[in-house]
Amino acid sequence: MCLGVPAKVVSLTENELGMLMGEVDFGGLRREVCLAFTPDVQVGDYVIVHAGYAISRLNEQEAQEALQALAELAEFSAAEGESLFFAAGE
């Protein structure tokens, strides 16, 4: 199962093909993602990122709720001796 993860948009750019790109912050980890599916996004907005693409925009409350749910899931998994992350092929 793959999850979309909330991230905060910190910068906007265009790539050499003219596609909207941006740097997003996943709670301290920054990555460049494609924002072509969210063309109305602005710096400071939150987006759901899946496989390097922002697939939807959220308000800050929705983003915080999603981040809290992911943190609780990680905590539960750790308590059960499970990992949320799997090696390729598992």
What does the model show?
- The chain is an alpha+beta fold and 90 residues long.
- It has a single domain, classed as SH3 type barrels, CATH 2.30.30.140.
- It is 22% helix and 38% strand.
- The protein contains 1 helix and 5 strands, in the order E-E-E-E-E-H.
- The chain has a 5-stranded antiparallel beta sheet with strand order 3-2-1-4-5, covered by helices on one side.
- The longest helix is centred in the C-terminal third of the chain and has 20 residues.
- It starts with a strand and ends in an 11-residue tail after the last helix.
- The C terminus is likely disordered.
Report mean pLDDT, rounded to a whole number. 87
Number of domains: 1
Helix content: 10-25%
Instruction: Briefly note the structural class of the backbone.
Output: alpha+beta
Distance between the termini: 11 Å
State the major sheet: 5 strands, antiparallel
CATH architecture: Roll
Regarding CATH, which class? Mainly Beta
Concise account of the structure shown:
The protein is an alpha+beta fold and 90 residues long.
Key words describing this protein structure:
SH3 type barrels, alpha+beta, disordered C terminus, 5-stranded antiparallel sheet, elongated, 5 strands, single chain, 90 residues
List the helices and strands and how they pair.
Blueprint: E1 5-14, E2 20-26, E3 29-34, E4 46-50, E5 53-58, H1 60-79
Antiparallel strand pairs: 1-2, 1-4, 2-3, 4-5
